């Protein structure tokens, strides 16, 4: 009997993180980490999960955008969709009326990505394997069929992608064994939120080193004196051998970015992240020349593979920070990983938020197994909050992501979490805020 | 007594244009031209109007995004807001939680633009002048205060903008007289929709020349043989002296764009519009080199001033096609007009759609009076549908936009149009589609 997609539920889930300034930075002083969360049900009782990470207001708009894509999937034959994920992805991203609202950017593109990711979650669950394993076991030909090369072929042709993937077959079994034994390198942003006190910064930096991390990240860009003081505290705390990345979250213009980054050079920052608008590929190229040897990193807000293509073509970045829910889902992220490999730039994904760590580890592990074939200069971001709401949460051991083995993309939240944090009717939003804040302390 | 913004109504208005293939092109085969339409009411009974143009599905998402911005304006002091439109605009675009959903792009940015435009409409109504006049009469210092220079200062500093505007004071009274006497040049896209028959194309091309237009535009990119045939028909019809622009609506990659455009060179196309993704500033630079002397035009989907900045920095376009509802409203479009002037690139706005002609003439007229001070190589797009729904519709006379004199930004729709075309409950959507289509023929 034909199995079809029969219904979907899209939920507005918000966590009141602004009460503790978790996640605070120069651009985002008081985020409430949120997810527009999709459960996509099949007629045989299976569920695929996907979501878009947002930071509060507007999460309802993201929910509406996901709902706008549902007519493109509800009623369709599940086996047919799963057998042609390239065509499915192109159909969603290319729907002409919805595409007008992007194109391929912002709310509408992230919504398509959530649907595409939910279907990947379902496919991996059906196959009984974690997504990283499902993807890595596809043939090079199957993988390139997932990708829309239209707007990236001038930088990466289908043939070039095939050759990269074919080269990646070498030694794959050994790499998979290594991955299962010792995981994937991580770095931590937990110490560095801008709203934390100097004491909390020092204590968490010290704890991060004790926990085995060899790179921590600090938010900068709110005020120069504060940046100087905080970076000094962190450097004194971790010593000269632990890397410290800094992250301005787009608050600077091009000239400011160069001046402000160089003003912190004495503390040997490893990379400057989001020095300016993610749309400014030309500006990033200028900044990179202006701050070398400090590296330039960006990508969490780079809205599609076309932006990443240009950052690479212009030699504008040293580190590519893809995000699991910013672009058009797994398919586009595979294209981005291949673009990075073509240009020899390491992928260090953005994570944190809600569930981003859970999702993105699958992409980095696929990258290691099937594409880049190396861990050198690679680390996945790690932030230690909100994992308890996921059924397959990340596990970190001595500064590394433990390789997940549960089937799927790890996108599922606990029902109890959904119930508590649904906005605005969940208990987290209806109980007294002061009492709630105190309880969370 | 303090006047405040007291309430707002946001409407999902859709016109069933797909029934006749008006607006059909290679990327958008069956658009239903739509508007997410905002009416913003003050406590003294005035109303400001703004909207975002979309092409059907997803218009409800755009409505939700406008609604998400209302808490940032409802309750505020109208006089204070109107007196600091720069600050108001930066506050809306920079709201950190909403900004995360862009940043400064797509659904969320267009929504901010609709609110900002509605407030400009109100300000011009209160002043009793059309928007072009209100803007042109601001001092250079007042105009630069409207602009957020953070991400564009490396290409256009505040001082440079001031100097351009000060130079624009020369001869302004003469230009205003000229504008009121003879209007602003237009070109027409009416003949060239891809869904039209060859006979309709020829008849409408001929009619366009008779109506006084010296440039018509044809959609291309669906199939090479069809493009060749249709462009041949148009050239035969209009003769060698009328310019023919062609528009691919982003269907090509970079190499395809160069090849496909050059394959039509024998018909002497004036510009190739949207040859590839609007995000690909590097690709546009490559295409421009590859198709010269055919000009390259883009902008209707360029999502903010940062994209335009880079198109100009990379010498990637010959014609800048700003759109009245794609970016963050009047303020950002003023920045874009100034960027174009700095780089000596003519602005030929995108129009058509729903109400875009009505809005954008104000920006081009401001450009002529206060910034570029010339009409050379400038034309505003014109398409002859849906104007009857606006209270201050465009008037075209011998191929030129007649200069509007009614107070405001011309963004208001007739109540009867709203009632008929509101989706999905208006009569246009509840009556039988076949009968409706027949009636419209």
SSE layout and pairing:
Two copies of one chain form a homodimer.
Chain A: E1 5-14, E2 34-42, E3 47-54, H1 59-69, H2 78-83, H3 85-94, H4 96-99, H5 106-127, H6 131-136, H7 140-144, H8 158-167, H9 172-182, E4 184-192, H10 198-210, E5 215-219, H11 224-238, E6 243-247, H12 254-262, E7 269-273, H13 281-291, E8 295-298, H14 305-313, E9 319-320, H15 329-343, H16 356-371, E10 380-382, E11 396-397, E12 400-401, H17 415-421, H18 427-430, H19 433-440
Parallel strand pairs in A: 4-5, 4-10, 5-6, 6-7, 7-8, 8-9
Antiparallel strand pairs in A: 1-2, 2-3, 4-12, 11-12
Helix pairs in contact in A: 1-5, 3-5, 8-15, 9-16, 10-11, 12-13, 14-15
What would you note in describing this structure?
- The structure is a homodimer of 441-residue chains.
- In chain A, the strands form two sheets. In chain A, strands 4, 5, 6, 7, 8, 9, 10, 11 and 12 form a nine-stranded mixed β-sheet that branches. A three-stranded antiparallel β-sheet of chain A has the order 1-2-3.
- The radius of gyration of chain A is 21 Å and the shape is globular.
- The first copy, chain A, has helices spanning 59-69, 78-83, 85-94, 96-99, 106-127, 131-136, 140-144, 158-167, 172-182, 198-210, 224-238, 254-262, 281-291, 305-313, 329-343, 356-371, 415-421, 427-430, 433-440, and strands spanning 5-14, 34-42, 47-54, 184-192, 215-219, 243-247, 269-273, 295-298, 319-320, 380-382, 396-397, 400-401.
- Chain A has a domain at 167-416: TIM Barrel (Alpha-Beta Barrel), CATH 3.20.20.
- In chain A, 44% of the residues lie in helices and 15% in strands.
- Chain A is α/β, with parallel strands linked by helices.
- Chain A is built from 19 helices and twelve strands.
- Chain A starts with a strand and ends with a helix.
- The model of chain A is unreliable at 434-441 (pLDDT under 50).
- At the A-B interface, α1, α4, α5, α13 and α14 of A face α1, α4, α5, α13 and α14 of B.
